[in-house]
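The passage that follows is intended for readers who have already worked through the single-chain material. We present the inputs for a multi-component assembly, then the predicted structure in tokenized form, and finally a short commentary. You are encouraged to pause after the input and sketch how you expect the pieces to fit together before reading on.
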Amino acid sequence: MVETRELRKRFGDREALRGVSFGAGRGELVAVIGPNGAGKTTLLSIIAGIQQPDGGSVSRAPAEIGWVPQQAALYRRLTVEENLRLFANLEAVEEVEATVDELLARVDLTDRRADQVSTLSGGNQQRVNIAIGLLSRPAILLLDEPTTGLDPRNREQLWEFLTSLAAEGTTVIFSTHNIAEAERYGERLLVIADGDVLFFGTVAELHQAEPVPAGAATDRAFERAFIDFLAARGH
Amino acid sequence: MRWLLLKDLQVMRRSPLVTGLLVLYPIALAVLIGLALSAGPSDPRVAFLNEIPDGEDVTVGGSEVDPVSARGELCGRVECVDVDSEEEARKMVEDGEVLAALILPEDFADQVQSLNGLNPVSPTVQVIVNEEDPVKAQLVEDRISTLITEANLIVSRQISESSAGYLDLLLEGGEFSFLGTQSFDVLGLERTEEILTAVSEQTDDPRLKRDLEPVIEFAGLARENLDFAIPILGAIAEPIQVDKELVSGAAPGLDNFAISVAATITLMFVTVLLVAGSLALEREENTYPRLVRSLVSRGELLAEKVLLGVAVALAVTLLMLAGLAIFVSLDWSRFPFWIPAVIAGGAGFAAFGAAIGAAAREVRAASLLAFMLSLPIAFLSLVPSGTVGAALFDVIQVVRAAFPFDPALDALSGALDESGPDMVLPLVHLVVLTAAYGVIARVALRRFG
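Having made your guess, compare it with the prediction:
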């Protein structure tokens, strides 16, 4: 379980977060969505401990939270396993080699373990990025737009992996611009715009708040509802 | 911290171009400096034309000067290229084949010999210089001016010695040779005075005694005054002498100073570029936030980069000094002094590099900034006092004190040479600068991280 209370952050004259409060339970998948500049990355960065809030609090310490940034945070001149081993040592993981082997298997990169990261595709680099976020076996995993740049097959594999993590009890909080992914994988949605929380609830509750107009295409009904929801609130 | 250090060494191992440059750069620098120091400056090529007719003697003050040995003297200082005519000499200068031409004119011997007579003419040599390259022109001018000055000194000394010989003859008397064929005895003032005194004592003629008295007095006065003239002639032959006084201890040898400058420049570039680039790389690869959010503190990250810089600086500088030892003699008994000097210098430069790396977000920007800041500071630190105005030099002193190059150079000079500067003050200075730049880097990381 992780909770934020009245998180505030200001960059000069611009208020990036205006008192954001929400909570995610054990094994829950929470999608953070909103227009560009809404404050999604700032919110996740503060929960991860990368940025300090100007006000408010987070219930968990950064060391208890796994962090997967949008851009792969890896040493490109090191191999896959050297990256994992380095961060495992820095995280003071007890059984480094066993943990590295296990995570390589989980992200399906065992056969690429000796390859330099710079030679991997973007999708495989993202897998290493996620594996590093999981090294300390965190109770909460934060992912900032994890599927950006991935092809459909890689995206599918990534979601299978994340849903299996959630099934094992890890709380997964992810931000995304892909509304279909949020609808499909987010058990609850946190909608923010201009630093304000506009909605926090399930997909069904969002549909209730903003009914889909008659005649709208069913495959894009949720996206339509989301756009209308934002427009009705001036965004 | 050790995992990060190992990681940085692994990254260096995986970047063979950068690491190769880090190793090859000091070796290349060491070889170049070693060759320069061991070979010395090359002699400039000068065309030499001797128009003095064969067999003609040049006599100065009654002594013959051998034109062959004069040529040998000249060609020991420059590389002589014998030419047959003034036109050939001029063309070689114009074509850049030689830097200058030196011509001894046909009447040079007569001009020199005229110095012995009543109508002396200043001997003149002709010099043709190509001033297209002002540095080379200055070099040739300096060499030829030195030669002419030395020749003048030899001529004037020989004339003085010859004149002193004549004065001796007048004083003490003796045989005088005229044109090498005739000789006759000269009585001399001393003997004249003695004879006249004896005659005066032996005669009873008061008139003769009275007449002899002023002559004896004149002979005595003339002898005494001519006695003074001899050292005066010597002084004229060599009018100015140098009495050198050192006011602030002996300077280190030029070789050691050159080695210190080369080692400090290597230390500076290797360390500043490595640390600035390594820190900027953490942000370029997006690993910086991952590291500092809970794995290491910003202070630990900076300390690791400084440690990396010091370790590499130590290895590279010692490698460079070992390379230089092939060409020049290094005092290995002072090795224990080298280590603290290189470590303190490396720490100062590493902290400076960390401040640059903390302010720049990309490796390329950090490298450019490191070059742009380091190079002018190194130049400023090598400006000697007295070459610029006092107020400007005060400003330069302040700038020098704010950067690690000057104290690192002093520390290395002191470490390499016993007669170099005292090491304690530069080492303390470097420790202070390391701390100061560490604080700046820490603030920059928080501000720009």
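Commentary: The radius of gyration of chain A is 18 Å. Chain A touches chain B through 25 residues (CB under 8 Å). How closely did your sketch match?
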